[in-house]
Design goal:
InterPro entries: Endonuclease-I, His-Me_finger_sf, YhcR_N. It comes from Psychromicrobium silvestre. Keywords: Endonuclease, Hydrolase, Nuclease. One of its GO terms (molecular function) is endonuclease activity. With 369 residues, this protein is α+β, with helices and mostly antiparallel strands. The chain has two domains: 108 residues, Beta Barrel (OB fold (Dihydrolipoamide Acetyltransferase, E2P)), CATH 2.40.50.200; 231 residues, no CATH class. The strands form five sheets. Strands 1-3-4-6-5 form a five-stranded mixed barrel. Strands 13-16-15-14 form a four-stranded mixed β-sheet, with no helix packed on it. It has a three-stranded antiparallel β-sheet with strand order 8-9-10. A hairpin with a 3-residue loop joins strand 15 and strand 16. Helix 6 packs across helix 7. The longest helix is centred in the last third of the chain and has 14 residues. The chain is elongated, with a radius of gyration of 23 Å. The N terminus is likely disordered.
Length: 369
């Protein structure tokens, strides 16, 4: 067992219990067991690696003096009690959000865990090669009202969950994209959506070799333009080469066409665009988000997905059957997951549920054919 001097220093358990205000806090305490219900903490025969209870004393037995800590998937191998029962009695330091867990004072969405004076933090949110979240990390909090639902009930629940958001101006999108699409190998660059090229953040604007702001759900489909709302929503705005963006225009998405000279791997024809394989699923999930977030109840058009590739100015994007296939064929990768987390934690305070739960696409629109 380590001593307080050996471990990193955080607030006491009592202080965090008294300050459940949704802020980011760091707490130091002793692992005393695993919570399984509001007033139940087991001290042996641990059923999972999902949670632990901290107290200011290693011998504490009153649950009223314990803080229930959610263990994100990235930390379960090192701190879960089912895998590491010998951790009971160890003093650790955890950083996370001070908010209820199991309807009890808690710390959720942890970003750093340490023990024996050394830090174990595999989830640097600025490192897209090591994403900070998995789908289960927000199930007991952000998505709790959607779990177990299907079809229309699920769609309604997701719409209600993701609608509250911090809305950006179109000028602010420049800064947002430089953050969300940062090249993990070069913090001075962004990764362009269609080319996959790493280009300087500063090289944005309208020049031939610049990058600009691509509306993946074409802004003319529903005529929302660059208005604050769908026109400035980072969940579907990506950096793209100016001339490639122009070539895509407002086309719907489908398979087939001729190669795009400046963006190898992309194809296009008169009415559709096929992106490179590495971002097919990303595009599908961005469009799915837009269709669920914008339902026509906030002054904008009701956006939807359909089977057409000739939608023009109608508030639709196709081709749905192809998008479902892309969602299945190209699951969320580290870059996409990190992007979702950065938008949620630093910019809009809402998430794309189809990145966290790609299977929800099937529940809403059916299986890929």
């Amino acid at each position: 067992m380590t001593t307080p001097a050996q471990a990193a220093t955080g607030s006491t358990v009592a202080a965090v219990i008294a300050n459940q205000n949704g802020s980011s806090q760091t707490v130091s305490g002793y692992i005393v067991g695993q919570p399984t219900a509001t007033s139940t903490v087991v001290t042996s025969g641990y059923p999972s690696d999902y949670a632990l209870a901290l107290a200011d004393a290693a011998t504490e037995s009153s649950t009223a003096k314990m803080l229930y800590v959610q263990i994100p998937s990235s930390f379960r191998a090192g701190f879960g009690l089912k895998s590491n029962p010998s951790l009971k009695g160890t003093r650790i330091t955890v950083t996370g959000t001070a908010s209820a867990y199991f309807s009890h004072p808690g710390l959720i969405n942890g970003t750093a865990f340490s023990k024996d004076g050394s830090s174990t933090n595999p989830t640097d949110p600025t490192d897209p090669t090591n994403p900070p979240t998995n789908s289960s990390d927000y199930d007991s909090t952000y998505y709790k009202n959607a779990l177990g639902k299907t079809g229309t009930a699920l769609r309604t629940a997701l719409h209600n969950i993701i609608t509250p958001m911090t809305k950006l101006s179109y000028d602010a999108v420049w800064n947002g994209i430089q953050d969300t699409d940062q090249d993990p190998a070069n913090p001075n660059n962004v990764i362009e959506l269609y080319t996959g090229n790493s280009v300087p953040k500063s090289q944005h604007g309208g020049g031939v070799d610049d990058w600009n702001r691509e509306h993946v759900f074409a802004k003319s489909h529903g005529d929302f333009g660059t208005a604050t709302g769908p026109g400035t929503d980072l969940h579907h705005l990506r950096p793209t080469d100016v001339t490639v963006n122009s070539a895509r225009g407002n086309k719907d998405f489908d398979n087939g066409g001729q190669p795009v000279a400046e963006a190898p791997g992309n194809l296009t024809d008169a009415d559709s665009w096929e992106p490179r394989d590495a971002v097919k699923g990303d595009i599908a999930r961005m469009l799915m988000y837009m269709a669920v977030r914008y339902e026509g109840d906030d002054g904008f058009a009701n956006l939807e997905l359909n089977e057409s590739t000739s939608n023009g100015s109608n508030p639709f994007m196709g081709k749905l059957s192809v998008l479902l296939k892309w969602n299945a064929q190209d699951p969320p990768d580290a870059f996409e997951k990190n992007r979702n987390e950065v938008i949620f934690s630093k910019w809009q305070k809402n998430r794309n549920p189809f990145i966290d739960h790609p299977e929800w696409a099937t529940s809403l629109w059916g299986a890929a054919g």
